[in-house]
Inverse folding.
């Protein structure tokens, strides 16, 4: 065994050279790996005793891509292309031996090998689009040549990986092997040599491209299909253009086009923001006072109290991850209703081909409904998901404190109430924690994990790890009204509702936030949630705008009208002049002078209060670090990922400019304390710093 670099070894086993990459944690293509691959394969090519080469990785995975930390820095050592060229042009077969995740540059290196073998659990993908870039080492040119244009387009524009079975079926790999991967790959390479099999260079195979030539509908269809999901992102369209180039241009010309597009994207503000989000999500997993080795509780059975929309959605996450769930309801019909909604959700996923009928049955079989809370005694985690009433929640936690076994974690899905008060009646506050899921809970990625004053490290560590296991992004937050997300949303709501009384119209505000990149503006969101939440028809006397809308029967989408009118078929929403005059009349009654408000001011008045609230949240220690706030907003509130999050965005504008503008608004609004900048914001602005400097 020869060390070629500090992270690449070369060993000759019989007539096969084994090149081993060992660059923890994910064998990213850092300089040592690039140099090592180039040098090791070169040596193997020149070694007369060697007839074939195997590239394998140590640790948890095959190469998971370029080293993202190196982006934006001047390249050092060998470029990935040089390593790829020495592999692809080798006169001796090169076999990639894959386990874990062959992603990005890792898959692009494997696509330069002449053969690829993998273990059953391996996954394959080009996720660069999630970083605001594209596969810049030939992925847009080689992947379509192997799996076909349509499959390649969907893999690269979604960024989602495929499994080994599908990779074998599409020809991305040549064999699935079991047992010791290195041994099996060496045996495979020996077989290739013995059978004198050809050196399959992907760049030379054009059948799949020929099949797509002269069919622009493939690309138009895909563009249409991804338009809504990728609105505002630059990378997806660039990927489509690269694949069009693959179909219509010679390889060398098309790969030059790919590199030009890559360079444009990797230096773009969007990619910088998306790469920030990548590392911010990983940072959020780190809890300074809860070390990585904090013992975690095994979660083998979960109990859920309440089979409503949230309870049902939450239960699906655990059933999807193979964890049996017991749902408790007070009445049989409520239980039946809840379980039938869960079944319908699964049936919809199955009908869209997202899960198989077998998966559906398996997951439903893991969800068990009961009417007796005592039957949760053996659960490792119990999540209460009943409506927001403190007395009811305290009742439940008192019972859980008595019923549940020692060591069980008791969680509340409350979106605003005081976890400390709930914990105070449980008799075991160290085991009480908030698990704030977002609706629909089986879809939304974010969980705000709320630590109370006495929540123990074991409960926190267990829930952070469990969130990852059920495919969620978790952020640990402290106790305050609305935690991080809702607290900042409330600040935006106050201003958005003031804006329409000062002269903007609901559809102006929504258009500005929609164009900024939110999936929906606040007023369309209020209509979706229902304007009659907390409204009492018996006592309502037109006190507020919402009361007046509700009294008119305009209670939101469910009544086909709210701030907007809704097409009963398409759910398309259109502005309603009657609502505009209702707002004008209401403002007049309140003596509020109307004025012209431009889009920039609308955006600032909606988002600057969120930034200010973020500063207060950090002052109070409700969030551990600024980037956690961005992870909350990007994964739970539709903040466009290509803008990084409210804190990242504020830093890009400059906190001094934000503070100055807030003071202008304060003056404009007659000294309204609402616009008083947080002390932390003022301090950072004064010092010419940003949240990133904290
Ligand atoms: N570069 C640098 N660090 C990385 C990294 C990468 N590509 N991938 C992971 N890490 C770090 C991560 O920050 C964390 O660090 C630790 O590894 C474990 O990660 C030319 C240009 C592989 C599926 O986009 O999707 O190739 O927090 O917590 O849940 O076309 O990491 O411990 O200090 O996520 O087991 C394309 C990104 C790059 C894959 C493992 N590749 N990584 O998940 O662990 S662009 C990607 C992942 C590219 C080419 C282009 C996941 C994973 P720390 P983790 P995990």
């Amino acid at each position: 065994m020869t060390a070629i670099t500090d992270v690449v070894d070369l060993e000759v086993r019989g007539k096969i050279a084994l090149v081993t990459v060992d660059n923890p944690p994910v064998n990213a293509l850092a300089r040592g790996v690039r140099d090592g691959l180039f040098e090791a394969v070169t040596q193997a090519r020149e070694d007369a005793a060697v007839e074939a080469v195997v590239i394998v990785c140590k640790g948890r995975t095959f190469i998971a891509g370029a080293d993202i930390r190196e982006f934006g820095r001047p390249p050092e050592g060998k470029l990935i292309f040089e390593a790829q060229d020495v592999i692809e042009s080798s006169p001796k077969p090169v076999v990639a031996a894959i386990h874990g995740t062959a992603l990005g540059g890792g898959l692009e290196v494997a696509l330069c090998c002449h053969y690829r073998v993998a273990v059953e659990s391996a996954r394959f993908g080009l996720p660069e689009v999630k970083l605001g870039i594209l596969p810049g080492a030939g992925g847009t040119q080689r992947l379509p040549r192997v799996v076909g244009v349509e499959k390649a387009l969907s893999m690269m524009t979604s960024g989602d990986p495929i499994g080994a079975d599908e990779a074998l079926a599409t020809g991305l790999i040549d064999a699935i092997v079991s047992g010791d991967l290195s041994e099996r790959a060496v045996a495979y390479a020996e077989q290739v040599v013995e059978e004198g099999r050809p050196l399959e260079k992907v760049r030379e195979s054009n059948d799949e491209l020929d099949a797509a030539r002269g069919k622009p509908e493939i690309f138009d269809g895909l563009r249409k299909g991804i338009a809504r999901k990728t609105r505002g992102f630059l990378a997806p369209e660039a990927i489509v253009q690269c694949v069009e180039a693959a179909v219509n241009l010679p390889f060398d010309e098309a790969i030059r086009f790919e590199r030009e597009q890559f360079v444009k994207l990797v230096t773009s503000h969007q990619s910088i923001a998306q790469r920030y989000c990548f590392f911010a999500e990983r940072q959020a997993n780190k809890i300074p006072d809860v070390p990585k080795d904090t013992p975690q509780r095994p979660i083998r059975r979960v109990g859920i109290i309440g089979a409503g929309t949230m309870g049902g959605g939450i239960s699906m996450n655990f059933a999807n991850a193979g964890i049996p769930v017991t749902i408790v309801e007070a009445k049989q019909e409520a239980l039946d209703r809840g379980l039938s909604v869960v079944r319908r959700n699964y049936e919809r996923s199955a009908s869209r081909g997202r899960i198989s009928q077998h998966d559906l049955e398996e997951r439903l079989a893991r969800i068990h409904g009961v009417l007796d809370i005592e039957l949760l005694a053996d659960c490792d985690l119990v999540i209460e998901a009943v409506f927001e009433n403190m007395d009811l929640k305290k009742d439940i936690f008192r019972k859980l404190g008595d019923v549940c076994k020692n060591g069980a974690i008791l969680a509340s899905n409350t979106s605003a109430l005081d976890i400390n008060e709930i914990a105070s009646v449980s008799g075991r506050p160290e085991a009480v924690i908030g698990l704030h899921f977002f609706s629909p809970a089986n879809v939304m990625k974010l969980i705000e994990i709320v630590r109370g004053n006495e929540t123990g490290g074991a409960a926190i560590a267990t829930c952070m790890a469990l969130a990852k296991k059920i495919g969620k992004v978790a952020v640990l937050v402290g106790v305050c009204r609305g935690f991080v997300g809702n607290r900042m949303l409330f600040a935006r709501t106050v201003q958005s509702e003031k804006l329409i009384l000062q002269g903007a119209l609901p559809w102006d505000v929504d258009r500005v936030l929609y164009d900024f990149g939110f999936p929906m503006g606040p007023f369309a969101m209020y209509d979706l949630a229902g304007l009659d939440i907390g409204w009492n028809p018996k006592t309502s006397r037109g006190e507020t705008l919402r009361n007046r809308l509700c009294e008119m029967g305009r209670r939101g989408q469910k009544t086909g009208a709210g701030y907007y009118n809704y097409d009963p078929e398409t759910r398309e929403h259109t502005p309603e002049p009657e609502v505009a005059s209702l707002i004008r009349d209401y403002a007049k009654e309140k003596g509020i002078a109307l004025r012209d408000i431009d889009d920039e001011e609308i955006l600032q008045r909606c988002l600057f209060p969120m930034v200010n609230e973020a500063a207060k949240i950090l002052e109070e220690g409700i969030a551990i670090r600024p980037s956690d706030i961005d992870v909350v907003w990007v994964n739970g509130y539709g903040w466009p990922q290509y803008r990084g999050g409210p804190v990242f965005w504020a830093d890009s504008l400059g906190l001094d400019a934000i503070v100055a503008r807030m003071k202008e608004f304060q003056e404009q609004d007659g000294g309204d304390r609402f616009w008083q900048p947080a002390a932390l914001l003022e301090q950072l602005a004064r010092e010419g710093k940003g949240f990133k400097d904290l």
About this structure: The pocket of (2S,3S)-3-hydroxy-2-methylbutanoyl-COA is lined by residues 25-26, 28, 61, 64-69, 80, 101, 103-105, 108, 127-128, 131, 133, 135-137, 139, 279, 282 (CB under 6 Å).
